[in-house]
Amino acid sequence: MIVQGPVYRKGPLLTPRFLVILAALAWAPTALPLFMIRASFKSLGRLQGRLDLGIGVLEAACVGLVWWVAPDPPAPGLLPLLIAVPLGEFLVGRYRNRAAAALDTYDDPHAFRRDVHGLATVTIGALVPPLVTGVALGAAAYRLPYALSTHPGARTLVLGLAAGVLLGGLLAVTGLLAVCGRRLTAALVTAAPLAAALSAATPLAGAGSELPGTVGALAVAYLLGLVAAAHAAFDTDRYR
Q1: What is the spatial distance between Cα 124 and Cα 231, in angstroms, rounded to a whole number?
Q2: Which residues, including other chains, have CB under 8 Å from residue 112's CB and lie 6 or more apart?
Q3: Alpha carbon of 159 to those of 40, 60, 136, 166, 184: distances in Å?
């Protein structure tokens, strides 16, 4: 018999959180106060609510970071988020709801495990392409055709797009970690690019290293977060 744990709760596929993020994109410098209402969208215990609030603040800071390192119009780092944020919310909501439905449907632990593993495979598989795309864009920024390489701002544009793609995927990864009950891990993964940006802002860092450093930090945090999210998504032992 499977005993329902406190992790998965049914909810809408598209939560108000993604609307908050989209609104914040239009006013990236003021995104931080908007994200602070994220915890009000969920009826959680005090500790979980504080962790959700902390994750929301860190996510807002990451959006502001991507805007700050590539602010030139049309703020290329923010454009991919217009697509990535709702898709990520849909993906995470689908995982949460399908896992909750499987928990209510199956009495056989093996059938439940098989269903959740299949769901986790699809979810994690959908989170891999943004990582690959972001890394590929970051590498392509230093291998532009000659006609583009001589254009001022071409490298910044490509690196900004890479940062936006990576951040969009990272937001989905942290959302999945939070859904799976790994909120502390989600907070650490979200804080990693910010810590790297602070390090890059020191006098020891070379001028103009903020954007490439941000892209690299987002890629590393994305990879580590994806590994942690895969472990959490496939884990069904929490229901025992």
Answers
A1: 10
A2: 2, 102, 103, 105, 106, 236, 239
A3: 34, 20, 10, 11, 29
Q: Contact 95/7 with Cβ under 8 angstroms?
A: no
Residue type, 15: T
Query: Amino acid identity of 167?
Result: L
Q: Which of 159, 179, 164, 183 is nearest to 94 (CA)?
A: 179
Distance CA 59, CA 43 (A): 20
What the block records as the tokens of 139 is 């590498």
Q: Per-residue pLDDT tens for 31-57?
A: 333 343 444 444 445 677 677 778 888
Q: pTM for this one?
A: 0.78
Phi/psi for 37 (5° steps) reads -90, 5
pLDDT band at 74 (very low <50, low <70, confident <90, very high): low
Instruction: Find where tokens 């996510």 sit.
Output: 59
116-168 tens-digit pLDDT: 899 999 999 999 999 999 999 999 888 877 566 666 678 888 898 999 999 99
The C-alpha angle with vertex 188 and arms to 227 and 71, in degrees rounded to 5, equals: 100
Q: How far is CA 25 from the centre of its chain?
A: 15
Per the CB < 8 A criterion, the answer to whether 3 and 107 are in contact is no
